[in-house]
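Review form for a predicted model. The reviewer records the input and the model, then writes brief findings.
Reviewer: anonymous (R2)
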Amino acid sequence: MAMIMEPTSMGADKVHINGLRFETVVGLDAWHRPGKSQPVELSVHLMPASTHGLEQAAQEDSVAYTIDYGKLYKQLQTLFSQKYDTVHQLYQAIRTILPPTRSWLINITLPKGILAAGKGLQLTWNGSIDGSNASVMQIMTVSDIDCRCIVGVNPHERLEKQRLQISITIWGLENRLSPSLLAGVSIDPSPTLIYQDMVQSVVEVSQTLNLDT
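Model under review:
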């Protein structure tokens, strides 16, 4: 885990909390079982709403002028003692405890959330506030989906299927997507599993796959 505070040219701080690791219940585990805890990795990057920066916090010897990342860490730690039906529900819980911010980036990774995906499921929310308007971009990545198929057209290449690892990423504005699309591993049939199965079925039924085209 690393906690970093840095001043920016805009006169505001950036606070980075990287590499938090917890065990908690988030939807189904890799074997589709509810109520089973699994590893969760979390990174949070924030730009506070306050115009005060690190310099004033240092002058006044008070974290009141910036984000108290120690307090924030303890609040995050408390959240992970609870259970969540979806990754999206966990994200919403994290958002409720964040201090006022101009922008935020929250990255939640379930490294063992999908059995056939070597690097699991990663969901990122990149949000910002401009006046009274807030926008959030959601990004979902299923990494290193294990597939096997014939690759190439030469006779020796067609004797045995080769192992491939394929990753897919989906982008979308939060208010323009169905909540279920980026819900992560949920009690209902999971979109991530649908995408995984779709990729595997398309690739593995291919009799000839030329990766150069």
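Findings: Residues 17 and 159 are 49 Å apart (CA to CA).
Further findings: Residues 2-145+167-177 form a domain with the GTP Cyclohydrolase I, domain 2 fold (CATH 3.30.1130.10).
Recommendation: see findings above.
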